[in-house]
Amino acid sequence: MDRRHFILSTLALAAAGCSDSRAHRQAVYMLVDTSGTYSREANKALLIVNYLLGTLEPGDSLAVARVKSRSFSEKDIIAKATFDTRPSQANAQKRAFRDKIDAAFKTVPGSAYTDITGGLIQGAEFLNEGGAGSKTIIIFSDMQEELDKVTVRNFPISLKNIRIMAVNVVKLRGDNIDPRRYLGRLDEWKVRVEKAGASEWRVINDLDHLDRIFGRG
Amino acid sequence: MSFQSLLLWPENPGLSILVFVVVAMGFMYAARRPVHELLRALGHMIGGPLRIAARSLAQAAADIHQRNKAVLLAHGRQEVGSRVEREFERLAAIVTRDLQGYPTLQRKLLDEITKIEEDYKKCGEVPPPPPDWTDAVAAIANVKSTGNELVMRVLEEIKRSVTAIHDKAIGEYRKSYETRHKILEGFMPFWRSVDKNLTQVEKNLASLQSSVSTVDAHMAKYEAINAATDKAQHALMVSAFTQFFISLVVMTVAAGGAFINFKLIALPMSEMVGAGDYITNSLRTSEVAALVIIFVEASMGLFLLEAMRVTHLFPRIASLNEVLRKRMLWIALTLLVILAGVEAALALMRDMLITDKQALLQSLATVQAGATEGWVGRIPTAGQMLLGFILPFALAFIAIPLESLIHSTRTVGGAGLIALVRALAILLRVMSQAVRQACRVLIRLYDVAIVVPLLAERFTRQAQRSGRKGRAADFDAERTHA
Fold first, then answer.
1. Class level of CATH domain A30-214
2. Which residues of B touch A (CB under 8 A)?
3. Where are the domains of chain A?
4. How far is B381 from chain A (nearest CA, A)?
5. pLDDT in tens, B341-352
6. CB neighbours of B359 closer than 8 A, spacing ≥ 6?
7. Each residue's pLDDT tens digit, B362-401
8. CA distances from A95 to A79, A98, B356 (A)
9. What is the pTM of this model?
10. Among the three residues B180, B205, B226, which one is the final residue of a domain in this structure?
11. ipTM score for this prediction
12. Considering only CB atoms, which chain A residues are within 8 Å of B357?
């Protein structure tokens, strides 16, 4: 809050009208890939969760969910919270949230397949129900989707007005042989989420610049 | 449409242009008078209203000036009048305090003077003269000693008696002088008291004289304002401008204080009304609540100073009776103290919230920072609480510069308005003149364009004139011959 904001606030006192407070809230849904070798990256996921807890304001929402063989399920949500509007209560909730995530990440069960699409659908549902003004899905994964034969995910999905952030997209063994695979994989996801109506697609591999998650970088 | 298609003879553009120019010149020459009149009419049509508007604005500026002068003088009269009133009150207080006891002082002085006179008279009393028997003693002293034992004895006896009487008289004389000296010694406190009282009287009179000269100066100013002299008006105008800028500076400083105050309580207010509620798109409810508290504090300060009769922004408060006014004063003061207490508590809560947030962030960070404990860590908390308590009282005093600003803004704004209206009037006048001159220039330019037919016309007229003169000369010659 700067001086200009102070003056604006003073002037705005005279202005009538109320605004929907939900429009100012942020909701973040984080998908954590636990399949195969990627489950070893759990410590980095914890780093991101901590960053989110430190950045989100009272009134914002945060949910952390696992990406498993089939991820379209509420059961995959490890922890979720809508922080209280009172800062002291929000801080207490954040501490509890961190403890819960810490405990969950200590024993991360690996999964055979990676259902990123199912996680995205679940995340979009969660975010749309909350009605927050800014909705973000963070995908902590190598973005290599692997589905079993019975799981159906090849249909159009809706990610309208949702920002999609792919974080820590590690290169697979094959990507090193042919980087086009890695770039092609990211391009495919970009096309898919933009086609689904996502407002933004961004890849953040440098964890020192997590502020880009909220478009500040 | 190409340039060639406009030409009469496309193969000979020079001739075509020449013919076009000659024909156009012919038409323009034929239309010369109507075009001149049209341009003149246009000049009048545009320039006239501009001139009228300029005159109206100048008149409006003069009216505003008169009105401002009247308001300024009225305000000055009121201000100087109230100052004179206050000076008279002060004089009355001095007279009541110092000169009310003047009769007592005078009586005291008279008593002391009477006492001094009486004592002085006592000092003048001398011991009674020696009795008449001194003559007898002198006669006996003249008796010649013949060695007669009887005579010698008588004389011895007389001598002894006289010596005894002399010693007694000398003793009485000394005693009398001693008494007078004591009386004179007793004069001293009275003299000192008289001196002190007279010095006090002199001081009081000097103070009274000084106050009277101040009243005289104010009265002279009041008379000048009443006479509506230019000097008085100028002095009042300068004073208003000075007041305006000083008040503006003080109000800016106060705004800085209010900003600090706002920063102190905006965060903790979110604990009360919630941090996620918004009134407008960018305005949080907690920020509005903090602003409301600051404005309420400023209002309470305003009412407090009004009730104390320091400011006079609300005539209704000024006209309240003493009991109600005092009640209002105490209510405003109590509310201000309560609000200051609330602010101090909010400042403490702000510190606690920030500490809690810092602790959370540290626990979330990979590298843990060492905590700063001890009395040093308490200084910011105590400072914030103190600021939170003091700032509302400091803000209360903005009522004084606010009143000054409101009063001086009328004069300064009026002067600014006059300057603006005058500038507009000058601008319109310049535009009017420019339009008229432009029309004249256009008329001249038109004539320049048809200079060839005009020259031909002039030559023709000259030839006709010379022909007429020649014919007249022939006619005169014929008449002479006849």
1. alpha beta
2. 259, 262-263, 266-267, 270-271, 274-283, 287-288, 291-292, 352-353, 356-357, 360-361, 363-366
3. 30-214
4. 18
5. 999 999 999 988
6. none
7. 888 765 555 556 777 788 888 889 988 999 999 889 999 9
8. 12, 5, 11
9. 0.65
10. B226
11. 0.77
12. 87, 91
